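Design job #97: recover the sequence.
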């Protein structure tokens, strides 16, 4: 029967276990390896954060983890991935590095041009909306006229840059809708900040007979009253049954 009995541990043993807890596991310290100029001989430069750089191959543009920033692992990449360049001199890798940097510079320039073209597209849409002109005027008149004037004054290269400006009918409509939503959002923030404002609402119809809800609001901003008007098309007109035909 004794083998089926579970004997309790002595009190001294339990006390020793409580006083001497198991040792905590030591956490491994993360070491950030730094780049050395000699690593270019293994076809590697560095990219990313200065405090935690990543090795980048100038031949295949592959990026490795910071833990691989050691000569043995960089050399292994060169020998396994690019055996034809194992005996290439340092000047070859320097030229490859400079070529990659020039290509990245061209990419940044193209992104900047795209940003400028986007900004010009919004400014064009704003001008069309203020003048109450049809959206098609941008693609049919404004942009062709600008190309002619720019080509005469600055040359064909400058005129070709204008082709990057989005100016189609649907694009101009989207730009105007985006600006309208942005204005409404800023107005709502100003009304909430002011705390007091007056609102006047009226219903009218346009030339096509569609019902329009007109709203005019005045609020205080920097010690001055600023009016703002908007119009919304009503989906349906509700009439009292006793007045309907």
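Job complete. Output follows.
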């Amino acid at each position: 029967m004794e083998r089926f009995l579970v004997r309790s541990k002595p009190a001294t043993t339990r006390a020793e276990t409580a006083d001497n807890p198991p040792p905590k596991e030591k956490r491994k310290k993360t070491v950030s390896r730094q780049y050395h100029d000699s690593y270019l001989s293994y076809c590697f430069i560095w990219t990313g954060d200065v405090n935690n750089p990543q090795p980048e191959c100038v031949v295949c543009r592959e990026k490795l983890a910071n833990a691989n920033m050691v000569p043995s692992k960089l050399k292994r990449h060169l020998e396994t991935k690019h055996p034809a360049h194992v005996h290439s001199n340092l000047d070859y890798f320097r030229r490859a590095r400079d070529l990659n940097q020039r290509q990245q510079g061209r990419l940044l320039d193209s992104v900047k041009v795209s940003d400028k073209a986007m900004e010009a597209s919004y400014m064009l849409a704003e001008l069309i909306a203020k003048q109450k002109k049809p959206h098609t005027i941008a693609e049919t008149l404004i942009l062709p006229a600008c190309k002619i004037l720019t080509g005469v004054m600055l040359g064909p290269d400058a005129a070709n840059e204008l082709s990057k400006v989005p100016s189609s009918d649907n694009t101009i409509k989207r730009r105007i809708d985006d600006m309208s939503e942005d204005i409404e959002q800023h107005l709502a923030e100003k009304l909430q900040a002011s705390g007091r404002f007056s609102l006047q609402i009226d219903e009218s119809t346009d030339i096509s007979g569609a019902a329009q809800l007109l709203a005019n609001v005045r609020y205080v901003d920097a010690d001055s009253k600023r009016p703002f008007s908007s119009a919304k098309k009503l989906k349906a007109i509700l009439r009292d049954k006793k007045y309907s035909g």
